[in-house]
Every structure is written in C-alpha cells, then in structure tokens.
Amino acid sequence: MRYEDAYRRSIDEPEAFWADEARAIHWHRPPRKILEYTNPPFRRWFAGGETNLCHNAVDRHLDARGDQLALAAISTETGVRAHYTYRELHREVNAFAAALVSLGVDRGDRVVVYMPNIAEAVFAMLACARIGAVHSVVFGGFAAHNLALRIDDAKPKLLIAADAGMRAGKVIAYKPLVDEALALAASPPPHVLIVDRGLDPSMTRVAGRDLDYAALKKRHANADVPVVWLESNEPSYLLYTSGTTGKPKGVQRDVGGHAVALATSMRTVFDVGPGQVMFSTSDVGWAVGHSYNVYGPLIVGATSLLYEGLPIQPDPGIWWQLCAEYGVRTMFSSPTAIRVLKKQDPAWLARHALPEFRWLFLAGEPLDEPTARWISEGLGKPVIDNYWQTETGWPVLCLQPGLDLKPVKFGSPGLPNFGYDLRVIDEVSGEEAAPGEKGVLVARPPLPPGCLTTVWGDDARFLQSYFSHFKELWYSSLDWAVSDADGYYFILGRTDDVINVAGHRLGTREIEEAVATHPSVAEAAVIGVHDEIKGQVPVVFATLKAGTPEGAARADAANALRERVAERLGAVAKPARVYVVNALPKTRSGKLLRRSIQALAEARDPGDLSTLDDPNALAEIRAALDRGS
Ligand code: ATP
Ligand code: MG
C-alpha cells in the first residue's frame, strides 16, 4: 500500500482506519465505539473495548511461539546475559504478579519502578500491566530528590527497586537513594520490594518495610495470576518527560490505544514482525524503552534485546557484535549515542558482517547530517531519523520502510505518521505557514491512539501545557519546524530555544548543524544570549573529536566555526562567541540542556537541574565563560 493513501485515510476516515489497525491486538471485549470525542481535546479511543497489555505481550504468543526467545537482557557491566523464551517470560511475569498481589497491589494502584536495564524491570512492568496496576518507571540512578518528587506525584502503593546499577564498571548503589527518597517523600509507600543483584554487599534493609523479591518469588514460583481485563481508556502507566525545558510532566497513557499504536508502528515504521529481532539501546526508564524495548516488540511476537552498559565497552564494536550474534533486524538508538561512537575509529563499524541487519533508527535529538552520513556509510546500512515525544509514545514524523519507504532526506525525520494531522503555525499571526516558512509544529486533535490521555492528576496542566498556545484547540509540540514542498518536516529546535537576532528568528538546530559540518567537531550546542543592540546573539559551545590537538589548534577551530556558520546561514547567524569544551550538559536521557547554558551565559540561575546527567559539564561551561574562551 502507498504511504500517501494510508496516511490520507488515517486523517479522513480515522474510525475506519483505526478499526482495521485494532485487529492486530487481542480484545477480550471488542470496542463499542472506535472514537468517542465529546469533550475535546480529550478523546477516548476504542471506548468500551476490554484488553490487557500483558496478555497481548506474553500470553497470546504461548501457543505459536512459546519456545522462541522473547527477551535477552545483556549487561556488559556485570557480564550477565539473561535469556527468556515467551514461556519463561510468562512464568517470571506470573510469579512477579503474584508477589504484587500478595502485597495488596490492586487494579488502578500505582507502582513506582526504580531499576536499571535488567530483565526484572521488564517483569515488573508486565506484572503491573497484568493485574491492572499503573507502573511509573523512574530512570534508575536519578537522584533521591527526583525519585521523591515522582513518588509524591504518583502516590504509589509499592516501590520496586534494585540494590544497584552499574555504569562504566562502577557500582551505583540505588538503595541509599531509595531510603533518602522515602525520607523526603510526603506520602511514601508502605513497602519497598528489592531485587537484589548482589552488587552492593553493604546494603541495609528496614525491617517490616523492605522485602526481598527472591524470597517472595520462591513462594509464588508456580503461580497463575489471571489477567485483569481493562477498559481501553484506563491508565496503563505514567512516565515523566525528560525535563529539558523545566519541571517534568507526568504523561498518562491508556491501554488499548497504546497497544494498537505500537502494533501498527512495529509493522509500518520499524519493520519488525513475529520471530524477528529488535535491539533498542534505550533505558526502560524512557519512552523509547517502554514502547520499543518492552511493549512494542513483545506485542508483535518479536525478540527484544535490552542492554546495560556503555556503547564503547568492552570495546566500541560491542553493539555491532551483539547485532551479529542475535541476528538483529532493526536497531533503535539516539544521535547522542552515535556521536559518542563518532569519537572512535570508524573501523569498529565494519568488523562484523550483518546480513540480517536492515535498519538503524535514531530519535530523541536532532540528527545532524554529518553524524547520519558517518554512521550510515560506516555500517553500509540505511539510517532513519524519527521524531516524537514522551507525550506521543510513538513516532510523529518518520519514514515507513515496513509499508512503503519514501526517500531519506538528511536532516529531516520525514513525513507525518498515521493520524497526526500536522501544521506549521506562525507564532505571531497564528496562521498556517507555507512550506519553507518556519513556525511551531502543531497537531490538530483528536490526537491518534497511543498519545497521552492527560497529565497525571492534572487535566488543567494538560490543557495549559499543550492546548493553550493558539486560538484554535491545537496540540503544540513546543518544537519549531519547517516543511518542504514534498511534505517532509525539519525540526529546528524547541520554541523556548529560538534565537531572535535583530528580528531574524533562527532555530538552534540550524546553527548547530552548520557547526557540526566542521571536520573537528563532535557536538555543538548553540544558545541565544541577550545583546543590547541585536536583542540576542548566537553563542556556540562545541566539543571536538578525540585527537584534535590542544592549544592554538583549538583557537583556530573556534574562528573557523564562526566563519563556517556565516558562510552557510548568512552574517546574521554568525556566532558572537565560540567556546571549546570537553563535555556539554545533558539530561540523563541525552538531551542538550540549552536553557541552563543560556542561563549561565546571561549570569542567571541555571534553573531546575534535577535531570542533569553530569554536573561537571555545567561547571566546565561556567569556567569557559569566566575564562572567555
Ligand atoms: P520536557 O518536555 O520535560 O522539557 P523533553 O521534551 O526533552 O523534556 P522528551 O519527550 O524526552 O522530553 O523529548 C522530546 C523532544 O525531543 C521533542 O519535543 C524534540 O524537541 C526532541 N526530539 C525528539 N526526536 C527528535 C528528532 N528526531 N529530531 C529533532 N528533535 C527531536
Ligand atoms: Mg518536551
């Protein structure tokens, strides 16, 4: 089928389109109405339908593929590789679900999961789904304060945590963070269920509160816990956004719409079906992890790889080695991760023959053309950008190799996905911008299945955050974009980050892309800094590739970068200053924290740093600003 026809139908006849797509999952009771839209922008997909995510991800496959590998959890930190067939996964999930039930966890109760990328995190999520509990996975290793905030927002009945995670060979003890978070929280849950990996021998337990999963599991090893059938619009999980622009928002997802959107996108976008292998390098704590490490691959009966470790250890070829060993067909990673590899010798990309490997998908941050070319040429495989948000849960802009692959245009995540009625709106006039004109990317509601249903416990924040920016009731992506004559979209940066130089509006992404074309540059962040005359001027922070000489060569690089931007984008975009640093501040999910750099450059408070990954990177920015180079 042609992409254009399928897409048109998804917009013109959404109920017919999604009724067809809904056949891909199991319904205990079929939907009464495909779309109920009486209270815009709130909408109810598959109203009255009853289904269950765990049943669709696990039980449904037992007959046809019980002995097929469902989940491989690989840790290059501990050296453990854990493999589970669908039948074994079913056992593990039932035991976990029985443990939850024994602790009084019920339908609709929230359960906070604070674990690293290990199989037990997946069991915990599926066990919650099985009994209708609402999981809220908090990225393992987030500080106690972050965890406490999320506990207070979700008010969980239970917290499930691991003793520790590992990163770069170092044990990161989680339990002390849990203890601290529970002391900070206003409404701590009565119990903590600990999955003890044996990594932290000094771990202490609070009698009566802290329980050991292994002991509980022994008691429930052969349990059969019936699936709880949920109405399609009941909450399945909560997940907080990355907090790049401020306080994270608690995205609430439904059940049926989520399952259907994932089934569709696994087939059309990611081109993975039953028995095939998908490797997403995400952490389960992010939206990609939820959708494409856990639910998506399992719902379609594929094999999912979960990875704990760095992309460059034990060596920079580890990911491709795993792709060869497991016969990976589709891989999903982030531009940030590829830029880490890009600092290494490209010979690592060509060490393994990858006959089964079809596609590398990248998402989460703008994919600059030099990085896309470097990885695509090094691997000899197509690289496909895709754009989405924690809120949407699945790609908004993408190409669909599983259906009808349109040409890749470097720098663009592609075309609208099914059900996304997208427009670019001029912020000032509120009118639709013509192709080639920049503006805010919006979607006309109803949003398709799979997207957030609300902000947890806060409908007002849902409306205010996303639907209050224009006179029409449009969903604002809060991203800046431009479309071209072929209907492709290009993301230019976040609306908060737009730089206004003497009345010219520039997306951070345009300038970063120009900087990245310099052969010595590994990564760049561009911010707008207040200027008396021009309003704002662009300022660049760049990291250089390993092997770039120190000293004078760096100063030369800084000058070359200013000239290069002027050459490519015109004198108006010429950076006022260029700073060469060793690291850029990012969120734990790998996104550049431009707002914090900007605040430092304007001598303001850097704001909410709760999701900052490496405080040293920000300290280095501060030092570079003080030094003036
Ligand atoms: P918060 O909403 O709390 O500020 P966040 O927006 O960083 O955090 P996520 O939902 O993890 O949280 O990230 C989604 C954002 O990431 C998008 O809105 C966009 O700015 C950026 N993004 C994702 N994919 C792409 C892509 N392919 N190209 C360009 N930008 C992308
Ligand atoms: Mg966001």
Briefly, what is this?
By secondary structure, this protein is an alpha/beta fold.
Describe the structure.
- Helix 1 (3-12) crosses helix 2 (14-21) and helix 16 (508-516) packs across helix 17 (552-569).
- The longest helix is centred in the C-terminal third of the chain and has 18 residues, at 552-569.
- The mean pLDDT is 95.
- The protein is an alpha/beta fold and 629 residues long.
- The strands form nine sheets. The chain has an eight-stranded mixed sheet, with helices on both faces. A seven-stranded mixed sheet has the order 5-4-17-16-18-19-20, sandwiched between helices. A four-stranded antiparallel sheet has the order 23-24-26-27.
- It is built from 19 helices and 32 strands.
- Bound molecules: adenosine-5'-triphosphate and magnesium ion.
- Magnesium ion binds next to loops.
- The site of adenosine-5'-triphosphate has 23 residues, from strand 20, strand 26 and strand 27.
